[in-house]
Amino acid sequence: MNSTPPPGAQNRPASPEPPQSPPRRLLSRLLRPVATLFAVAYFLLDALAYWVVRPVARRIARLPLFARFGEWVAGLGPYPSLVLVLVPLALLEPAKPVGAWLFATGRPMAGAAVIIGAELVKITLVERLFHIAKPKLLTIGWFAWGYVRVTAWLAWLKETAPARAARRLLIAVRQFARRVGRRLSLMVRRAGRG
User: Fold this and answer.
1) Do 84 and 73 form a contact (C-beta atoms < 8 A)?
2) What is the pLDDT along the chain (194 residues), one digit of tens a residue?
3) Burial class for 99, CB neighbours closer than 10 Å (0-12, 13-18, 19+)
4) pTM (two decimals)
5) Distance CA 110, CA 102 (A)
6) Domain coordinates of the chain in residue numbers?
7) Which residue from 127, 137, 114 is spatially nearest to 61, judged by alpha carbons?
8) Which end of the chain has the smaller Cβ count within 10 Å, N or C?
9) Is the separation of the CB atoms in 103 and 155 below 8 Å?
């Protein structure tokens, strides 16, 4: 048996990648920044809403009803837990684009109410449900596989330049809001004395 490779085999790569057509490469290059910008805008909106809603969500989560509900959820199996997490999430996620549409069509109060209301329910209910059910959900093979990939993608996305810029902007907005709050509080105290 001849063990010598055929002529020219030494120059060929071991596993060639299929070449991409020029229009497809161009489309990929154009869509990647758009998709990244969309994702960053989505997460920035999510972070801003979370910052506004978090104090209210913490108070609601301390209610005794939520403790009993958490015990009930902990007793469920993996697939009922998955349904319990996905159904409210599927109902609440479309609220953000609806809220943005309301803002864009000149109804900012309605848009803010929709986004804040959906975030309040999402943070108090869905995130709590996910936290309680996560160990059971990770026993579902395909869910664990997807969870690892999604969290890796989110970690990568958070380290992109637009995401870092969005975080800096959010920190600046928070600091500005705190300064304005302190000044308003000081003005109210001074007005009360006078």
Assistant:
1) yes
2) 445 555 554 554 454 555 556 677 776 677 667 666 666 666 666 666 666 667 776 777 777 777 777 778 888 899 998 898 888 888 888 888 888 888 788 888 888 888 888 877 777 778 778 888 889 999 999 999 999 998 888 788 778 777 777 778 778 877 888 888 888 888 888 877 76
3) buried
4) 0.51
5) 6
6) 35-193
7) 127
8) N
9) no
